[in-house]
TrEMBL record:
Name of the protein in question: Monosaccharide ABC transporter substrate-binding protein, CUT2 family
Annotated compartments: Cell envelope
One GO term describing the cellular component: cell envelope
Organism: Micromonospora chaiyaphumensis
Signal peptide range in chain numbering: 1-23
Principal cellular location given in the protein's record: other
GO molecular function: carbohydrate binding
InterPro entries in the cross-refs: Peripla_BP_I (IPR028082), SBP_2_dom (IPR025997)
Family the UniProt entry places it in: Belongs to the bacterial solute-binding protein 2 family.
CDD domains with a match to the protein in the record: PBP1_sensor_kinase-like
Length: 333
């Protein structure tokens, strides 16, 4: 009887060891599992969680991701549109996880609400590339995006030295509150104009990155501040909306407008500068091609060490160089 009990105990311990071995081997976060999932000649499903397809910049980003993925054998990209809804974007990522994606690319609508679900994917061993907008903490594989503080500062310096050297009243049309580019572009701009104390920001209001809201916000700002000299917009579509509001009020020639993005498409900021509606725009690359390049290194090349942060460059675009930059960036006619 004692021997039988000892045999049962040995069997139970053997089963426990076998179970433990399986749980380690099947752990999606383990290095052995990650190595098993990568390599050439395999098929990979990539989930692209987009914040809001209604923004032209994000549609170009989607195109850059999907077009770049076509050149990588085995890559399939599925794009979801959160429509500027944090809860929907969380659900989109959860849906991707249930589909068994091999890698997640996400451009968060806002930082804090998307942090937990990004961490969930990362903790499950899924490589996560955060694109353009950040999340809180560092529970992700890599971040790719522009230096929004530097871009905002470059815009501010352009105002201080070139656009309004004698000073003037400026209104700021900002991006979505809670998104990191909005906060950083505002911070950078204030740093940039600090050298010219005669420049005054008389009002700042969000238009949530959207052209039509930029128009309505500018209409209200004009009524409250009829003598403004310039509009600093956090992106080109809102700047274009502000221009339309000023034009309706007969003030489009008296006010100067600048934006950020510089998309090389007919409806983008470079053409708006070339055609005289904006005085300047500042390039903000989508990072879509760079995200796929990094995904290839992770999934196909089995790279163990990839840069945690990739900062994309910018350039100032004015009427003097708009046509040249448009062509250089592969602008669509």
């Amino acid at each position: 009887m004692r021997y039988a009990r000892r045999a049962a105990t040995i069997l139970a311990l053997a089963a426990l060891v076998a179970t433990s071995a399986c749980s380690v081997e099947d752990d999606p976060g383990s290095s052995s599992d990650a190595s098993a999932k990568c390599g050439s000649g395999k098929d990979f499903l990539i989930g692209m969680s987009q914040a809001n397809n209604a923004e032209p910049y994000r549609q170009v980003m989607n195109d850059d991701v999907t077009n770049a993925a076509k050149s990588v054998p085995g890559f399939k990209v599925v794009v979801s549109d959160a429509a500027q809804d944090n809860s929907k974007q969380v659900a989109d990522v959860e849906n991707f996880l249930s589909q068994g994606i091999n890698l997640l690319i996400i451009s968060p609508n806002e930082a804090k609400p998307l942090t937990a679900v990004v961490k969930k994917a990362y903790d499950q061993g899924i490589p996560v590339i955060v694109l353009d907008r950040k999340v809180e903490g560092d529970a992700y594989t890599a971040f790719i995006g522009g230096d929004n503080v530097a871009i905002g500062k470059a815009a501010g310096e352009y105002y201080a030295k070139t656009l309004l050297p004698q000073g003037g009243k400026v209104v700021e049309i900002s991006g979505l509150p809670g998104s990191t580019p909005a906060a950083e572009r505002a911070q950078g701009f204030r740093e940039g104009i600090a050298s010219n104390p005669k420049i005054e920001i008389v009002a700042s209001q969000t238009a949530e990155w959207l052209r039509e809201k930029g128009q309505s916000v500018m209409d209200a700002m004009l009524k409250a501040n009829p003598d403004i000299d310039a509009v600093y917009s956090h992106n080109d579509p809102m700047a274009e909306g502000a221009y339309l509001a000023a034009k309706a009020a007969g003030k489009e020639t008296a006010i100067k407008f600048t934006g950020i993005d510089a998309l090389p498409v007919p409806s983008g900021g470079i053409k708006a500068v070339e055609q005289g509606r904006l005085q300047a725009t500042f390039q903000y690359p989508t990072g879509g091609r760079e995200a796929i390049d990094l995904a290839k290194k992770i999934l196909v090349d089995c790279a163990k060490d990839v840069p945690k942060t990739t900062t994309l460059g910018t350039q100032q675009i004015t009427k003097e160089n708009a046509a040249e930059v448009y062509t250089t960036l592969g602008g669509k006619q």
